[in-house]
Backbone:
């Protein structure tokens, strides 16, 4: 259509023409928008960088101002918000702080609006407000993430988009909260809407505000967040007009594309510098326990397991392809997603590892690609698949990518960048009716704001310091959550002994809180939105002989004597593991104690009941028997590991010494040396993999697997590319070609 | 960002886990030193108790080496040889599988943190010579053993280091694990 970018930028008469020109020129030349020469940068690099700093400043300023204009506590306090600036055709130029890979979604949404002639109907005009939270058309990972778009005009033409996204407090689904864990198809995902014009002249429509109030349980908070997103977008739109006035329209149009091409080159160079090419296998599993939850949807009345498989190809030309062939078929559950939303997780290691010396733009998407087979969890061959909590396992997919990159960088010698990556987040959510008939819904983002970091090849991971999805690690103030969620009070918040992936260097310890229900009024229902559950580990492969991190587990204690104990001034537990100890020692008694290694269903809670989580553990690195024995003793003395794990996992024998009523552990060196020798000798007596394979093969041939596991394999065999995973399975076990698991 | 001179001594501290947090921060905040791989290889070669030339380090204890015969194999730091580096070295390990809660709770704790038996099993892979735990998999029963890292060694030396290996034409970049498995099936 056009021979080069400048011609397209001068002559394109519509967004559709611009988008086609960008696609064609990028495809034809291998350079973004066909920009082979960074003319503006070369001509005056200082001006170019000054221009960009003004653009970037707008995005940063939008976030830091808007969240104090109007926002829910979740929008204000946590890193779950982002403002960005896009080209007219949907590529990102600059981001604020926050969950930056959300920018992958913008391309999906803006492309959808352009392809579907939004320029004609409903029209794209100066001051318009568009919004979406849809996965298929808007690229949203799940309906809790709500995006606002404002077209930016200067000198009478559209020059870009101001975009904002934040995770709202309540999504309006049958299950209250913002990650409904039980959703059979998308009609149960909550308030889902494709890209829609929801306001003009920078003013939201009246019906839009009413929609939030009518169709979600946190209408006031959600309207506040909508205003927050709008306020930031207005700051950006006004700022861009000023920048165009200062630099000129032609400079602006060319420079924003050069910025993207410049960062694309930098990211490619960083991949080349940091990585050893190769092929990396990875897998992760996610339990779905829907059996018995409802008889209304018999097709969803089942327990099974989702499988995410990733083969990451780091190529010697510094391109990367993440191939998800082998991943489960989409299913009647909450945990599907669409490619745009899935990519938000897939690209996390790229922003985490390769954008350190360049600009965070869409330049990172051009040499790193994902592939989701048609029909799979992340690319359903239907418009009706539920996607209310794609994050249930897509964060683990991001961790597979990141762990593969870690292996690649470890081989190159950049050990400082390497860690055992996990992303087990969790949120407690629910809804209720207060004594005064006030209805409300809520989400506690505590364990979304920060989790433990996995171990490095040279030091332990630290607790509650990291989140692979944001730079703004912050689990929030207890007091903030307490006033936000009327009947929920913290009895305690504490790290859980032993709760990590163990290794020569151990992962950061996971966190537990106890939520104590006080005077809930008429009713209160609680559930959990989160990543994995402890029935499976977060990722299937540990690093270098270390154990992958355990996933989350939950505890509900109802109809107990806890309130009496508290009133009597007795000690009370501070974390999930302490509740178990208190129950075992009969320091508290309860009629109803439930431990969940899977998503708890929505639970009715009454005054004095408690709900407790244990989540966000980090993975280990290396053989636990190589851990410095004194480090294990230190962990014992600080309460991070138990005597049992010290012995059974680390082969460390400790003796206790009491002085001034304080118990101290000391290393028993001879006993430790013997224990470790014994363990090593026991390992050397283990069977060979070949012998194991022969025995296992017989079991697989006889289909001696439980039904949910068979279901998982059959599901993975049945996507568009499932045959290749099936062949891999048949080849590995040397089975007949007509083998099946039915 | 600064361009930082990274000494061999600093890389050694990183390898030994005695590097300070401040030094790590400087490494993380700097442009990558392009000769790190050479320093890394020198340090590793000085440490191993054998003479074979290290081509790549795959994991804490697993190396791809070129033997004096010219053969490229994967090898444990203790000297145990796993064979052709394109065959998943895990297939030539010893293995322990934890299937019950009792077995799992020796390495995952507290008990609710344990993976669920029958849904998952824990596979521990050991070097047959030194007994070091080289890898852990937590997978559903029946799941094929995972090949964590098949390196494109020749692509790396050619395209990234700019010094192609002389025997590149003898080693196609391909997964040859299936050949070993087929031989097991024939023996059985």
Residues:
């Amino acid at each position: 259509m056009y021979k080069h970018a400048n011609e397209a930028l001068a002559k394109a008469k519509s967004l559709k023409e611009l988008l086609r020109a960008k696609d064609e020129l990028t495809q034809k030349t291998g350079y973004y928008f066909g920009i082979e020469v960074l003319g503006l940068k070369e001509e005056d690099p200082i001006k170019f960088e000054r221009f960009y700093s003004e653009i970037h400043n707008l995005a940063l300023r939008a976030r830091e101002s808007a969240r104090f204009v109007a926002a829910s506590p979740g929008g204000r306090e946590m890193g779950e918000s982002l403002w960005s600036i896009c080209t007219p055709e949907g590529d990102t130029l600059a981001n604020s702080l926050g969950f930056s890979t959300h920018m992958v979604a913008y391309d999906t949404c803006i492309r959808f609006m352009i392809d579907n002639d939004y320029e004609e109907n409903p029209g794209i005009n100066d001051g318009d407000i568009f919004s979406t939270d849809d996965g298929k058309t808007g690229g949203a990972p799940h309906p809790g993430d709500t995006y606002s778009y404002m077209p930016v005009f200067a000198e009478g033409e559209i020059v870009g988009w101001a975009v904002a996204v934040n995770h709202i407090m309540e999504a309006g689904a049958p299950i209250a909260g913002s990650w409904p864990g039980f959703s059979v198809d998308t009609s149960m995902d909550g308030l889902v809407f494709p890209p829609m014009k929801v306001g003009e002249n920078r003013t939201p429509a009246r019906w839009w505000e009413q929609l939030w109030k009518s169709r979600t349980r946190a209408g006031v908070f959600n309207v506040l967040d909508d205003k927050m997103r709008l306020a930031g977008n207005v700051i950006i739109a006004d700022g861009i007009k000023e920048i165009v006035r200062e630099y000129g329209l032609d400079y602006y149009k060319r420079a924003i594309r050069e910025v993207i091409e410049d960062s694309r080159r930098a990211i490619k160079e960083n991949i080349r510098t940091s990585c050893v090419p190769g092929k990396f296998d990875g897998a992760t599993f996610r339990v779905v326990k829907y059996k018995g939850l409802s008889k209304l949807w018999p097709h969803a009345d089942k327990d099974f397991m989702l499988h995410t498989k990733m083969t990451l190809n780091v190529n010697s030309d510094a391109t990367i392809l993440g191939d998800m062939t082998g991943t489960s078929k989409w299913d009647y559950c909450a945990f599907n997603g669409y490619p745009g939303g899935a990519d938000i997780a897939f690209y996390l290691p790229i922003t985490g590892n390769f954008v350190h010396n360049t600009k965070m733009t869409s330049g990172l998407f051009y040499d790193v690609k994902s592939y989701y087979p048609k029909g799979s969890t992340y690319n359903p061959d239907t418009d009706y698949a539920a996607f209310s909590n794609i994050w249930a396992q897509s964060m683990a997919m991001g961790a597979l990518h990141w762990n593969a990159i870690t292996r690649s960088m470890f081989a190159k010698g950049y050990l400082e960048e390497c860690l055992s990556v996990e992303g087990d987040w969790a949120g407690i959510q629910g809804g209720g009716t207060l004594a005064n008939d006030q209805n409300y819904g809520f989400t506690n983002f505590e364990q979304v704001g920060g989790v433990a970091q996995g171990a490095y090849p040279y030091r332990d991971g630290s607790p509650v310091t990291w989140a692979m999805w944001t730079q703004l690690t912050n689990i929030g103030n207890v007091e903030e959550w307490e006033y936000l969620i009327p009947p929920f009070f913290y009895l305690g918040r504490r790290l859980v002994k032993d709760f990590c992936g163990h290794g020569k260097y151990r992962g950061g310890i996971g966190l537990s809180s106890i939520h104590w229900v006080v005077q809930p009024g008429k009713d209160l229902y609680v559930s959990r939105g989160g990543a994995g559950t402890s029935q499976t580990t977060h990722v299937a492969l540990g690093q270098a002989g270390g154990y992958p991190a355990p996933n989350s587990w939950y505890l509900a204690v109802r109809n107990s004597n806890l309130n009496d104990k508290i009133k009597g001034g007795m000690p009370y537990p501070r974390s999930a593991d302490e509740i178990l100890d208190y129950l075992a020692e009969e320091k508290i008694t309860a009629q109803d104690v439930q431990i969940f290694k899977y998503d708890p269903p929505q639970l009715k809670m009454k005054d004095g009941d408690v709900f407790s989580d244990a989540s966000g553990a980090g993975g280990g690195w290396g053989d636990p028997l190589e851990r410095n024995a004194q480090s294990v003793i230190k962990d014992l003395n600080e309460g991070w590991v138990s005597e049992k794990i010290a012995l059974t996992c680390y082969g460390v024998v400790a003796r206790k010494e009491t002085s001034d009523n304080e118990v101290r552990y000391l290393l028993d060196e001879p006993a430790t040396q013997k224990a470790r020798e014994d363990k090593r000798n026991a390992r050397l007596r283990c069977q060979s993999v070949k012998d194991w394979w022969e025995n296992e093969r017989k079991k697989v041939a006889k289909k001696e697997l439980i039904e949910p596991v068979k279901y998982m394999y059959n599901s993975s065999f049945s996507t568009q590319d499932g045959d290749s995973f099936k062949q891999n399975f048949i080849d590995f076990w040397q089975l007949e070609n007509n083998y099946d698991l039915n | 960002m600064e361009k930082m001179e990274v000494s061999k001594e600093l890389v050694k501290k990183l390898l030994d886990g005695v590097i300070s947090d401040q030094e790590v921060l400087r490494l993380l905040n700097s442009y990558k030193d392009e000769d790190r791989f050479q320093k890394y290889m020198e340090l590793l070669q000085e440490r191993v108790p054998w003479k074979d030339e290290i081509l790549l380090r795959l994991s804490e204890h697993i190396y791809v080496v070129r033997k004096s015969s010219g053969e490229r194999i994967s090898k444990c730091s203790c000297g145990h040889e796993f064979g052709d580096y394109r065959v998943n070295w895990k297939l030539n390990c010893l293995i322990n599988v934890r299937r019950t809660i009792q077995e799992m709770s020796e390495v995952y704790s507290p008990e609710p943190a344990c993976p669920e038996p029958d849904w998952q099993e824990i596979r521990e892979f050991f070097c047959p010579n030194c007994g070091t735990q080289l890898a852990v998999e937590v997978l559903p029963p029946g799941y094929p053993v995972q090949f964590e890292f098949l390196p494109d060694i020749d692509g790396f030396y050619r395209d990234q280091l700019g010094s192609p290996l002389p025997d590149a034409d003898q080693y196609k970049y391909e997964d040859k694990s299936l050949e070993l498995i087929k031989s097991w099936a024939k023996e059985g």
Notes: The first strand of chain A starts at residue 81 and ends at 86. The two ends of chain A are 53 Å apart (CA to CA).
